[in-house]
Write a structure and sequence with these properties.
The complex is a heterodimer of chains A (548) and B (439).
Chain A (H helix, E strand, L loop, with lengths): L9 H9 L42 E4 L2 H12 L28 H21 L1 H4 L9 H14 L5 H8 L7 H13 L2 H4 E4 L9 H13 L5 H8 L6 H13 L2 H14 L18 H21 L12 E4 L1 H7 L10 E4 L13 H6 L8 H12 L24 H5 L1 H4 L1 H15 L13 E2 L2 E2 L3 E5 L9 E5 H10 L2 H16 L8 H13 L4 H10 L10
Antiparallel strand pairs in A: 1-2, 3-4, 5-6, 7-8
Helix pairs in contact in A: 1-16, 3-7, 5-6, 5-7, 9-10, 9-11, 11-23, 12-13, 16-19, 21-22
Chain B lengths: L6 H10 L23 E6 L6 H4 L2 E2 L4 E2 L14 E5 L1 E2 L6 H8 L9 H13 L6 E5 L12 E3 L2 E2 L6 H9 L12 H24 L4 H19 L34 H17 L5 E6 L16 H5 L7 H26 L12 E6 L15 E4 L10 E4 L10 E2 H11 L22
Parallel strand pairs in B: 1-9, 1-10, 4-12, 5-13, 6-9
Antiparallel strand pairs in B: 2-3, 4-11, 7-8, 10-11
Classes of the chains: A mainly alpha (548), B alpha/beta (439).
C-alpha cells in the first residue's frame, strides 16, 4: 500500500505498530502531508506561511448518518430513544467514523433502518403524538400539515409539493394514526433523511438548509434546531459572517461539548479505552476506572476549550488533572477534598497534566498485558504530527521480544533502533514511545518495572518532518508535551485532523490551499481552540461544492 | 403498486457497485460434469496466517500427511482440497492489505458480494449474500474481507440473534399481506418510500449516482424480501436449542462480543449459514472468525491472544505452541461446519456439502513474516459434482517464471464453480483463467 494512499488510516498504522512489525528504511518515509492524488486539474500552489486565495471546492457528497448521529437525530426529531446496535459499524478512515465515500447503505443497513423505522414510528405516534401533531385530524388539511411539518424536520429542508403528495399516500385506506406511522417510517428510510446532503444548487453553493444541516451536525452531531431552521428559511446563512455567527452560537450551547469530546476521542483514538486488558496483570483496572478515565478526558476538554477558552498549549501544559477519589487513587495522587470530581493539582514529575497524561490515551495505546512504546510512538507521529508511516514491507521477521522478567520493556524493544533493518522506520517511532514508559499498559504511573528503574528518556527524531535530520531529546511525557505544544508541525496537524472530521473525507492535493489557510489562521491566532473549531466554517469552501 | 424486482435496476446497481467493471470478462467455458446452478459458496476466514511447516501437508496429491495445525481436519479430510503454493500478489502489505485482497484479488468488489449480486439477478433469492461474523467488529482496526465497492466494506453481522431474525425472523409472508396489520403497514411504508427514492434519484441526477444506486439496490432487495415468499421451507425449529441470549445489560462488550461466547456465537452463525443455504435464503455466505490482528483469547485454545501467538518466533517456542493450539481450535470449528453441511439436506437434493464449495482463508501466509506467500487456504465440499476432494493440490512454482500461482486464479475457479463465467478476478499479472488442475 502506497504511503500517499489517502485512505490508509492511522488506525492501520497503529495496528502495524501493534503487530510490532519491523520495517526497512526504504519505503518508510513518503508524503507526510497525507495529500492524495486527484484528477487532471493542476492543484493549487501554496506558499508556506502565506494565505492563498485558490481554495478549491470539494466534491458534492451524500453523508450517511453515523449511528451516533442517527440516534441523536431520532431523539430530536421524534422524542424517542433508539438502540442502533443492529446498524453496521462505520468504517474508520484516517481514524474518523464519518467518511462519506466509504459509507454506503448495504442490505443489512436497509433491513436495520426499516426495522428501526417501524419501531420508532410506532412508539413516537403512541407516546409523542401531541408534540408531533399540531392540528385536528378531523380537519381535512391536517394530514398535509403533518407531512409538511415533519418532512421539513426529517429532511432538514422544505418538501416539494410532489414530495408532500407522495407522503400523503401513507394516509390512504389507513386510520389517521396509522397514516402518521407509515408516513413517519417512510421518511426515516428515505435517502433524504439517512444522508446529510451536501449537494448545493446549480452553482455548487450549499443551500441555506444544507448549510444549516452541516453546521448542526458539525457542532452538535444532530439535526438543526428551530433557530437554524429559521435562519435557513430567512436566507440568513449566506455570508461568512452569518455562518460564523451561527457557528459561535452552536459552539456556546452545552450540546457542543459532547460533540467536541467525540472529536477528541476520534482524534486521539481513545475509543481503545474499552479494549480487553489482562485482569491478572492489571487487577485494579476495573470498569469503574475505565469510566473514570473517559470522564477525565471529557472534563479536561470541557475545561480547556469551553471554560478556559484555551489554546493548543493548554492541551499539553496543564498542571492539574480531573479526578475523583477512585481515579486519584489509581493515579497515586492526593485526591481533592471529598470524593467528587475535582481539579487536582499535579507536579511535573507525576507525568500527568495535559492530553499525554490522560489515562484514556495511555490505556488505549498499549497492549493488553504491557505498555507499547511502538503504539505510543506511532500514535504521536500519526495523530499529533500527521506523519503517517508506511506499513512495513513483507518478509521481515516480526517476532516481538517475549516477556522477560529480567528486563524492562524498553530494554526488550531496544533492538528496533539498534538493528539497521528496523531503524529506518523505528528511529521515528521508538524514541518517542520510550518517553511514555513511565506509564504501564493501563495508564498507571510506574518508576520501577521488574525491579528495575524505568528510563523515561526519549527523543523525537525529525520532529518537523522526515526530511529534517534533527533529534530532540526529552524526559517523560510532560517534556514531550512541551515540545509538541510549540512544534509548528504539531500545531498544523490539529487543524488538518479537524478538517478531515468536519468535511467527512480524507484530504486531496486540491485541499492544500484550504488547509494551509486553516493552519495559518490557527498559528497566527494565538492557537485558540475555539477559533479553530469556528474557522473551518468560515472557509470559503465550507459552502462550495464542485460542479461536475 | 406492483412490487416486482426490476432486472434493469438490479443491473444498474450492480454496475454502480463495480460489478460489471472491466475486470469481469465473459468466459465461454463449457463444463463437462456437475451442476453449477445448484452450487452454493461459503467463505470462511480465520485470523492471522499460520506457521507454514505446521500447516501445509506433505506428500502427493492422493497421499499426504497432515501437520499439527491441520491435523484436526482428519475426520473431514475426504471432503477437502488442500491448496499449497498459492501466493497473494500486488495490493497492500501485512494484515490490512491481506484481508483487503483475500476475496478481492485487488478488484474493487469481493468475490462473495460479486457472486451474490451476479447470481441473484436471476435467482431472486431473499438475500444475495450474507456476511456473518464472530467478534469481527470487536476492536477491529484492520478491516474486513467483504467489499461492495472501492473502500466500501460490507461489515459482517456479529449478533447471531439479529442475523437469525433478519434472515428467518419476522418478515411477513410474502405476496399478499392479507389481514396481517404489520405486513400491510410494512407494504405501505415501502410503497411510499419507493416513490420517494425515485424522486431523490431525479433530484440528484448524476451526482452521487453510484452511492444512490447501491442504496436503491439494497432497498429493492428489501422490498423483495418483504413481499416474496421464501422459495423453500426453512426448518428453523432446532436453532439455538441451548438458548443463547443477548443480555440487554451488556453494553460493552455486547454479549456476542464476549470471549466466553466466542464458540457459542460461532456455532450459531454456522447453523444460520447452513440453514440459509439449505433452504435457499441465499447461495453465498461469508463467515469471519474475529479479524486480522485478533485480540481474542480463545477459551480452550492456546493461552495467548491469537495475534500475539501468531508472532511465534521459533517454530518450537511456547508462543508457537499456543498458536498451534489456537489454530487447532479454529480447525475443530471448521470440522463442525463441514459436518453440519454434510448432515443438512439441501433443498436442491442431496446433502448441502455435496452442493457447496467452501473456501477457508486467512490474510497472511507465514505470520512471523507478515507475508502473503504459500497461503493457508483450502477448499471443502463437492461443489455440485464439480470438485474432486480428498486431495492435496500443490501449485508451488507452477506459474510463469517458476513462481507460485496467484490466489486470484482460485477466485476465478470458485466463480466458475458457481456458474459465473469470468476468467479473471483482480490480479492478472501471472495470467488469467482458473487455477490449473483444480477441476
Amino acid at each position: 500500500m502506497a504511503m500517499e494512499h489517502t485512505t490508509s488510516g492511522p488506525g492501520r498504522c497503529l495496528l502495524v505498530a501493534l503487530s510490532l512489525t519491523l520495517a526497512a528504511s526504504a519505503g518508510c518515509v513518503g508524503s507526510i502531508t497525507g495529500l492524495g492524488g486527484g484528477d487532471d486539474d493542476a492543484p493549487p500552489v501554496v506558499t508556506p506561511g502565506q494565505h492563498c486565495d485558490d481554495e478549491r471546492p470539494a466534491a458534492r457528497q451524500l453523508r450517511l448518518l453515523t449511528r451516533r448521529e442517527y440516534a441523536a437525530t431520532i431523539h430530536d426529531l421524534l422524542g424517542v430513544d433508539v438502540d442502533t446496535a443492529s446498524v453496521p459499524v462505520e468504517p474508520r478512515i484516517k481514524g474518523f467514523d464519518d467518511n462519506a465515500a466509504a459509507m454506503v447503505v448495504t442490505d443489512r443497513h436497509m433491513d436495520a433502518y426499516l426495522a428501526l423505522a417501524e419501531d420508532v414510528s410506532e412508539r413516537a405516534v403512541t407516546t409523542q403524538r401531541a408534540s408531533l401533531l399540531h392540528c385536528d385530524p378531523n380537519v381535512a388539511s391536517c394530514k398535509r400539515e403533518f407531512v409538511t411539518d415533519l418532512g421539513l424536520r426529517a429532511f432538514r429542508r422544505p418538501l416539494s409539493d410532489d414530495e408532500i403528495d407522495g407522503f400523503l399516500a401513507a394516509f390512504q385506506s389507513a386510520s389517521f394514526d396509522d397514516g402518521m406511522r407509515v408516513a413517519t417510517a417512510a421518511m426515516l428510510i428515505s435517502p433524504n433523511f439517512l444522508y446529510r446532503w451536501e449537494i448545493g444548487d446549480d452553482s455548487g453553493t450549499l443551500t441555506p438548509y444544507e448549510t444549516a444541516t452541516t453546521l448542526s451536525y458539525l457542532f452538535w452531531g444532530t439535526m438543526p434546531d428551530p433557530q437554524l431552521f429559521d435562519a435557513a428559511a430567512a436566507g440568513e446563512l449566506s455570508t461568512p459572517e452569518q455562518i460564523t455567527a451561527q457557528a459561535r452560537r452552536l459552539l456556546a450551547d452545552p450540546r457542543a461539548r459532547a460533540q467536541v469530546n467525540e472529536f477528541a476521542t476520534q482524534w486521539l483514538r481513545t475509543d481503545g479505552l474499552t479494549a480487553n486488558k489482562d485482569a491478572a496483570i492489571y487487577p485494579s483496572f476495573t470498569d469503574a476506572v475505565r469510566n473514570d478515565m473517559a470522564e477525565e478526558q471529557r472534563r479536561f476538554f470541557e475545561h480547556v476549550i469551553f471554560e478556559k477558552n484555551g489554546s493548543f498549549q493548554d492541551l499539553f501544559d496543564a498542571d492539574y488533572v480531573y479526578a475523583n477519589a477512585e481515579l486519584a487513587q489509581f493515579y497515586g495522587l492526593q485526591p481533592g477534598a471529598g470524593s467528587d470530581w475535582a481539579q487536582v493539582p499535579v507536579t511535573p514529575d507525576s507525568g500527568r497534566g495535559g492530553i499525554l497524561g490522560l489515562g484514556a490515551l495511555l490505556a488505549s495505546h498499549a497492549h493488553s498485558n504491557e505498555s507499547s512504546p511502538i503504539k505510543r510512538g506511532v500514535f504521536v507521529r500519526a495523530r499529533l504530527l500527521c506523519q503517517d508511516l508506511a506499513p512495513p514491507p513483507p518478509d521481515v521477521d516480526a517476532t516481538p521480544p517475549g516477556l522477560d522478567p529480567t528486563l524492562t520493556t524498553r530494554e526488550r524493544f531496544a533492538a528496533h533502533t539498534e538493528n539497521p533493518a528496523c531503524s529506518g522506520c523505528h528511529q521515528y517511532i521508538d524514541g518517542v514511545g520510550f518517553g511514555f514508559e513511565g506509564f504501564d499498559g493501563v495508564g498507571a504511573r510506574r518508576t520501577v518495572e521488574n525491579g528495575l528503574p524505568v528510563d523515561m528518556s526519549g527523543a523525537v527524531v525529525s520532529l518537523e518532518g522526515f526530511d529534517k535530520a534533527t533529534s530532540d531529546p526529552f524526559n517523560d511525557t510532560r517534556e514531550l508535551g512541551q515540545m509538541l505544544a510549540t512544534s509548528p508541525t504539531a500545531q498544523s496537524c490539529l487543524p488538518l485532523q479537524y478538517f478531515r472530521y468536519a468535511r467527512g473525507y480524507a484530504e486531496t492535493v486540491y485541499d492544500a490551499c484550504t488547509i494551509n489557510n486553516l493552519q495559518l489562521d490557527f498559528s497566527q491566532g494565538n492557537l485558540s481552540l475555539q477559533d479553530m473549531l469556528i474557522a473551518v466554517t468560515a472557509s470559503p469552501t465550507f459552502t462550495r461544492r464542485k460542479v461536475q | 403498486m406492483t412490487i416486482k424486482i426490476s432486472r434493469r435496476h438490479l443491473l444498474a446497481g450492480a454496475a454502480a457497485a463495480g460489478l460489471l467493471a472491466p475486470f469481469v470478462r465473459p468466459f465461454g467455458r463449457v463444463r463437462a460434469a456437475g451442476s453449477p446452478g445448484k452450487c452454493k459458496a461459503m467463505f470462511v476466514y480465520v485470523p492471522d496466517g499460520c506457521i507454514p511447516d505446521k500447516w501445509h501437508p506433505n506428500g502427493s496429491e492422493q497421499s499426504f500427511q497432515l501437520k499439527p495445525m491441520t491435523e484436526p481436519l482428519a475426520p473431514i479430510q475426504q471432503h477437502l482440497v488442500f491448496l499449497k503454493g498459492l501466493d497473494m500478489y500486488a495490493g497492500g502489505a501485512t494484515h490490512e492489505g491481506g484481508v483487503r485482497k483475500v476475496l478481492t484479488g485487488t478488484a474493487p468488489v469481493s468475490l462473495d458480494v460479486f457472486l451474490g449480486q451476479t447470481l441473484n439477478q436471476t435467482d431472486l433469492l431473499p438475500h444475495a449474500s450474507l456476511q456473518l461474523g464472530v467478534g469481527t467488529n470487536f476492536q477491529n482496526g484492520s478491516g474486513g474481507m467483504s467489499f461492495i465497492g472501492t473502500e466500501q466494506e460490507v461489515k459482517p453481522d456479529d449478533d447471531p440473534i439479529n442475523a437469525f431474525t433478519r434472515v428467518f425472523g419476522n418478515a411477513p409472508g410474502g405476496g399478499n399481506p392479507g389481514d396481517d396489520p404489520v405486513a400491510r403497514r410494512r407494504k405501505s411504508i415501502l410503497d411510499v418510500a419507493s416513490a420517494d427514492i425515485t424522486r431523490a434519484r431525479g433530484r440528484l441526477g448524476s451526482v452521487e449516482k453510484e452511492k444512490l444506486d447501491v442504496h436503491l439496490a439494497s432497498f429493492q432487495n428489501l422490498e423483495r424480501r418483504a413481499t416474496t415468499p421464501p422459495p423453500a421451507a426453512c426448518a428453523t425449529g432446532t436453532f439455538n436449542s441451548r438458548g443463547y441470549a443477548n443480555s440487554p445489560t451488556d453494553y460493552y462488550p455486547k454479549t456476542w462480543e464476549k470471549e466466553e461466547n466466542f464458540q457459542a456465537v460461532g456455532e450459531l452463525q454456522m447453523d444460520i449459514a447452513a440453514l440459509a443455504l439449505s433452504c435457499k435464503m441465499t447461495r453465498v455466505v461469508s463467515l469471519m472468525w474475529s479479524h486480522p490482528v485478533s485480540p481474542t483469547h480463545i477459551v480452550g485454545g492456546g493461552a495467548i491472544a491469537n495475534h500475539d501467538s501468531s508472532h511465534y518466533g521459533a517454530p518450537d517456542s511456547a508462543t508457537a505452541i499456543a498458536f498451534v493450539q489456537n489454530k487447532r481450535w479454529f480447525m475443530d470449528r471448521f470440522v463442525y461446519l463441514i459436518q453440519k453441511l454434510g448432515a443438512t439436506p439441501d433443498s436442491d437434493g442431496g446433502m448441502l456439502l455435496d452442493n457447496t464449495v467452501v473456501f477457508l482463508c486467512s490474510e497472511l501466509g507465514d505470520s512471523n513474516n507478515h507475508d502473503h506467500k504459500n497461503m493457508p487456504f483450502l477448499l471443502a465440499g463437492q461443489a455440485a459434482g464439480q470438485l474432486r476432494t480428498g486431495r492435496l493440490l500443490d501449485s508451488s512454482g507452477q506459474a510463469q517464471g517458476g513462481q507460485n500461482q496467484p490466489h486470484s486464479k482460485l477466485l476465478v475457479s470458485i466463480a466458475n464453480l458457481m456458474g459465473v463465467n469470468v476468467n479473471e478476478y483482480g490480479f492478472t499479472g501471472l495470467g488469467t483463467g482458473g487455477l490449473p488442475n483444480l477441476v
